[in-house]
Specification:
Blueprint lengths: L3 E3 L6 H9 L2 E3 L7 H7 L5 E4 L7 H5 L6 E4 L9 H6 L3 E3 L6 H16 L2 H9 L17 E5 L3 H12 L3 E5 L8 H5 L3 E2 L2 H7 L2 E4 L13 H6 L5 E4 L8 H9 L5 E4 L18 E3 L8 H19 L19
Parallel strand pairs: 1-2, 1-3, 3-4, 4-5, 6-7, 6-9, 7-8, 9-10, 10-11, 11-12
Helix pairs in contact: 1-12, 5-7
The structure holds nicotinamide-adenine-dinucleotide.
Length: 324
């Protein structure tokens, strides 16, 4: 029985060192089987996950020695944080480590959609050279609507300004006098107004009950027929059936989806649409981000196992007497 259970692929030099120093059960496919996960956690003090492992109240109840659930990444929607808190278990995460990578991918999807890059590449490698067919649009002078103006949203704004885009944003938790708005010379709008005004809409909200299906048929109907939609946040933020209908009807011009409601999604009607770019949840997957993420995860696991507070707590701002 191991001290530390790693239930997804979290590898690298720092993880190798952790495996040297501690008794680690490293099982990157364990997330597929809740029963095996529960059995592995019977004596564990730390669980390391990405976004696939469903750390439910049931799983937490099966882990009486658990002190820390360390999430290698930023969204903690796969963890029952309330159940962890009630059991005195720290939920740590790595909020800043992959933000630049996610922001760069959002820019990549915008450019790829605006200039038809994947379709044009497929055309050339199959022997074609039709430039008119792949005529694109510039990002410069277009209005970018950023939904969720936190770490990643602001990094996207910084990059989009360098491309000459005008920025509008929607974020119910942002104050109209926020310095971030002044910094980007940006307008804070309601979501409805942002959707109407934007040429490109990019989503950067966390998954919460309030953001599940945030973009549905009514919201898509507000967008311009020429508009592009980019989602590098969470698949559940978009009602996929409504998006499919909107794309098929050319109600919007295109969509770039890094994330899906179900991952992996299996074959879906999106696969054959010419105005869609699909990625396998690559936002955080750069060498640089992964090194930072894994360093931060291993650091916090080691700290908590040594009886000290983690650096990046999600659920407890100050370690207190209720911790295990
Ligand atoms: P963050 O917490 O810094 O920012 C999220 C922002 O969304 C906050 O400013 C918050 O006020 C705002 N928000 C909350 N509810 C909203 C709503 N209903 N409408 C508009 N705005 C709302 O988080 P972040 O670091 O910028 O990351 C955002 C999300 O991106 C993460 O929660 C995660 O789900 C996702 N993410 C995905 C990848 C990937 O691999 N594709 C990588 C990193 C992060």
């Amino acid at each position: 029985m191991s001290d530390i259970v790693v239930s997804e692929n979290v590898s690298g030099h720092t993880m190798d060192r952790l495996r040297h120093e501690h008794d680690v059960f490293y099982s990157p496919h364990l997330w597929h089987s809740p029963d095996e996960l529960k059995a592995a956690l019977a004596h564990a003090q730390a669980l390391v996950v990405r976004n696939q492992t469903k750390v439910t109240a049931d799983v937490i109840a099966a882990a009486p020695q658990l002190k820390i659930i360390a999430r290698a990444g930023v969204g903690v929607d796969n963890i029952d944080v309330a159940a962890a808190s009630a059991a005195g278990i720290v939920v740590s995460y790595t909020p800043a480590a992959n933000a630049v990578s996610a922001a760069e991918l959002a820019m990549g999807l915008m450019l790829a959609l605006a200039r038809n890059i994947p379709a044009a590449h497929a055309h050339v490698v199959s022997g074609g050279w039709d430039r008119v067919r792949y005529m694109g649009t510039e990002l410069a002078g277009r209005t970018l609507g950023i939904v969720g103006f936190g770490r990643i949203g602001q990094l996207v704004a910084e990059r989009a300004r360098a491309f000459g885009m005008d920025i509008v944003m929607a974020d119910p938790f942002l104050r109209p006098d926020s310095p971030a708005l002044l910094r980007f010379d940006a307008c804070l709008l309601t979501l409805d107004d942002l959707l109407t005004a934007s040429d490109v809409v990019t989503l950067h909200v966390p998954l919460m009950p309030e953001t599940n299906n945030l973009i549905g048929a009514a919201q898509l109907a507000r967008m311009k027929p020429s508009a592009l939609l980019v989602n590098t946040s969470r698949g559940e933020v978009i009602d996929e059936s409504a998006l499919l209908a909107a794309l098929e009807a050319r109600q919007i011009a295109g969509a770039g989806l890094d994330v899906r409601r179900q991952e992996p999604p299996g074959p879906t009607p999106f696969d054959t649409l010419p105005n869609v770019i699909l990625l396998p949840h690559l936002g955080a997957f750069t060498h640089e981000a992964q090194e930072r993420v894994i360093d931060a995860v291993c650091r916090d696991v080691k700290l908590v196992l040594a009886g000290r507070p983690a650096v990046e707590y999600f659920n407890f701002s100050i370690p207190n007497g209720s911790l295990r």
